[in-house]
Amino acid sequence: MKPRVQAIFERLLAFETVSSESNMALIEYVRDVLLGKGIESLIVKDESGKKANLFASTGPRELPGVLLSGHTDVVPAVGQAWTVPAFQATFRDGRVYGRGSCDMKGFIALAIDAMLDAADHSLNRPLQLALSHDEEIGCVGVRRLLDVLHLAPVRPFLCVIGEPTNMQFVLGHKGKGSYHTYCRGLEAHSSLAPRSVNAIHVACDFIAALRRSQQQLQEQGAQDADYDVPYSTVHVGQIVGGKALNIVPNLCTLDFEVRNLPADDLDQFLEHLREQAEVIVREAKKLSSVADIEIQTLNVYPGLDTHPSVEAVRFLKDFAAPGTGTAKVSFGTEGGLFKQRLDVPVVVCGPGSIEQAHKPDEFIEVSQMEAGERFLAQVLGSLKL
Ligand SMILES: [Zn+2]
């Protein structure tokens, strides 16, 4: 690993940028490092002012460039059995340990180093860097940055999201919608149960509808054999309801998610689901007008489906190590949002393995960092005049 990459990487790992905390110290550090080479950063803060995205560009501004993108936040380390300090780089046995080492401060260190390199050369197309916050809690932060980049007169011709893929080219992942549902009924003494509306029973009917929709997606929805589960999935993850056995409950809440293949329309799915909820409610209202099912959207991010034959993918392929394949993955990224808002081809490619992400003693192999170094050096080489 280049000494400069290692130095940046160590600094990045020391910032405790758990999603719930501020990432400003890290963002200001990156801004200052880039400014050292004369690269200006655009800082886009969230409404609290405690978190920010960063965008920087070096090279000719009027031309579309290559955008390297990563998220600065990490998942918490508390409650996990770490044997090394979580927020400090530990170099051991050809690995770098630390929270965020593979997901994804290793890539960010490489991307910053590539920006610094780029500043020393005349480029025929710009190299750009986008850093986001709050990715781990549903790709929340990057949306503000995309609102700004969306309005820019020139957009990148390619976006590389450096999530850990062992430097393979990932061209697709499912989208995801998560939802909170209130099922309402009428409270009563349990001896009078048939005359009131049991909110748990309403929830059960709704869950049955969800399971029917899963069946439908499986049998009639889009299919993509590149995924372990080749169709869109529906799942209820949490349910809460009832106070005591002798009370007919008036409220039951449940959380469900849909992970959709990009070819299955999430809005359409939800519309269909609401129609089924209406049928359940209409029946329940015969006993009480308070019966209701209310579905609240918690978070939605789109899937990614980049065609392997687009020019941008072929451009990148020239720089990949021999044997680099294309794949689709089960985890989500900000890639779908970049594609949706900027209409730019997106490739997810970064060092390290998702297997190590979010775990205690998270690490990245130094050899992966070096593979990333070689890759970005080649990409940058192609942008030089
Ligand atoms: Zn990540």
Layout of secondary structure:
Blueprint: H1 3-14, H2 24-35, E1 41-45, E2 52-58, E3 66-71, E4 90-92, E5 95-97, H3 101-119, E6 127-132, H4 142-151, E7 158-161, E8 169-173, E9 175-184, E10 188-189, H5 199-220, E11 233-241, E12 247-248, E13 251-260, H6 266-284, E14 292-301, E15 304-305, H7 311-317, E16 326-329, H8 335-342, E17 346-348, E18 363-365, H9 366-383
Parallel strand pairs: 3-6, 3-7, 7-17, 8-16
Antiparallel strand pairs: 1-2, 2-6, 4-5, 5-18, 8-15, 9-13, 9-14, 10-12, 11-13
Helix pairs in contact: 1-3, 3-9, 4-8, 5-6
The protein binds zinc ion (ZN).
Zinc ion (ZN) binds at residues 71, 103-104, 135, 163.
Domain Peptidase M20 dimerisation: 172-279
Enzyme class: hydrolase
Protein name: Acetylornithine deacetylase
> How many helices in DSSP terms?
9
CATH class descriptor name of the largest domain: Alpha Beta
Gyration radius, in Å: 24 Å
CATH homologous superfamily descriptor of the largest domain: Zn peptidases
Share of residues in helices: 25-40%
- Between the first and last Cα atoms, what is the distance in angstroms? 26 Å
Shape: elongated
CATH topology of the largest domain: Aminopeptidase
Number of domains: 2
